Hints:
The protein is mostly helical.
Amino acid sequence: xxxxxxxxxxARNTLFESIRQPVLLxxxxxxxxxxxxxxxxxxxxxxxDQRMFVDIGMSTIFIGGAVLAAFVATNVLTREIxxxxxxxxxxxxxxxxxxxxxxxxxxxxxxxxxxIFLAVLFMLVEIHGVREAVADPWHLPVLLLTSGAxxxxxxxxxxxxxxxxxxxxxxxxxLTTPLLMLAYGLCLILGPDxxxxxxxxxxxxxxxxAILVLFIGEYVLTAIALAASTRLGQVLTLVTTVGFFxxxxxxxxxxxxxxARLDEITNGIIDAGGSPDFALQAEQLILKIAYSVVPxxxxxxxxxxxxxxxxxxxxxLATTIPYGLSMILVALAVAVVLFQRREVG
Length: 345
């Protein structure tokens, strides 16, 4: 029970510390603006505007989460190690694995709040839809309720900062996120002219599933960033996290394509009655190891299925979710090993 209390205490303190960071608000505002602007930008495709909007919006959330994971993980761990404030925690009878796991849960919690903010904002813009012609109506509930939620959240943040000394960034994010969720719920049952409508007409279940799977990919990046921050500084942690992100997106092209080609060559040699040489087998082994170690972030990208109006199979989720969880566990295990022998004194 004491271990659980320690874990929750570290996670809670890390969550509060993370959500107060100014970079959290900067990334949120930048991504939020891009999500909103992706609607008018998508109107110039001359083909499928809604498909372009989904691609731009979801990629903005994905990239923003990757950058956020690197910055926040670095600030909550590397800064404590550099300032030696971590000594006040690890000098007590607290196992270092619990400390690392608590840090991950706190950072993941802060990232979840930001991701929910962006996801709900994205879904609100999706309800409005891309205006492909001047005759297309404006969705007034989306415009008014979303603007009202943002203005009310900002006003509350300024008020609490001025009178109570609360941090504006954390106050704005924490208050505005539920307001946006409320606005989204109302927009589901209101038509463009405030006429009642069934919620099923605007609710996009598959799109929500795709966003939730995207969340798992972000948690994998958070675990990788935390592992890197146990030994590296902020710049190198950012480079490492973004590098894994890019490498993971290109994993099928870099490793999978070459591995499939080598398998064809090997099968052809065996069918001809020969045996593959040592160099071929060694290259296959190296590619298999790299393909297994590097997280494949393409499996978390389901926007193509959404834009092609294809349903997301349950068996695909049954494979992808455990894959993401296993990658998180592996990255956290690496973080524990690296931090276990890290000199913090």
